[in-house]
């Protein structure tokens, strides 16, 4: 019986994932924005600020890990709006009357968002290579990059599912993601934290994006990683677990309303 339920949930999750992927193909504007905005930010920082910011290496090499995180964050934020649209648009009510596992809706958004993020991140890296990015990573390091980015994207996707379940309209869903999208700008993504005022330096050093970016920088460029890898796993592994639990609770609450 348990295996049957798991199979049912998995197949329904795959059905809703295919729905999300079809939306990515049809809604080309969202995908282009998820790609275009990080690429524009990267080119702007490299071309406009690169000559003025001293990082001890070519600025394009320094800035790319932060742009990758910004790209993934922006792509994930779309999930909050999509979940809210499904909640208020009547899809959730229709699912309740069909032989579909209701939580498959959340799974579909998470995996679909991951696919969108993977596409956007790949394009950003390719553009970075064209404008001078020179990673030193081998196969093992690239696998490490994929692993840590997967953890980051999934944790953020589930967090934005929570946001989408909490709010009552699309406008609020769009606004509630802003603090998370802003965090990379107050980290070591674009400038060394040592250049910041002391009060901001303390925050930048101890918020989750900085160890994540330093881990990516270390894997891609061979800079020291230290404890940043374990801090990143702790931050985003914990966020993934908490967000999944909270999303499940909120979803069940919506079922009973």
UniProtKB/TrEMBL annotation:
Keywords: Cell membrane, Membrane, Transmembrane, Transmembrane helix, Transport
InterPro entries xref list: ABC2_TM, ABC2_TM_bact-type, ABC_2_transport, Nod_factor_ABC_transporter
The keyword Transmembrane helix is annotated on this UniProt entry: yes
Coiled coil stretches, renumbered: none
Main location: membrane
Compartment(s) of residence: Cell membrane; Membrane
Membrane topology classification: Multi-pass membrane protein
Transmembrane residue ranges: 31-53, 59-84, 105-131, 143-166, 173-191, 229-251
Residue ranges of every copy of the ABC transmembrane type-2 domain listed in the record: 29-254
Family: Belongs to the ABC-2 integral membrane protein family.
Name by which UniProt lists this protein: Transport permease protein
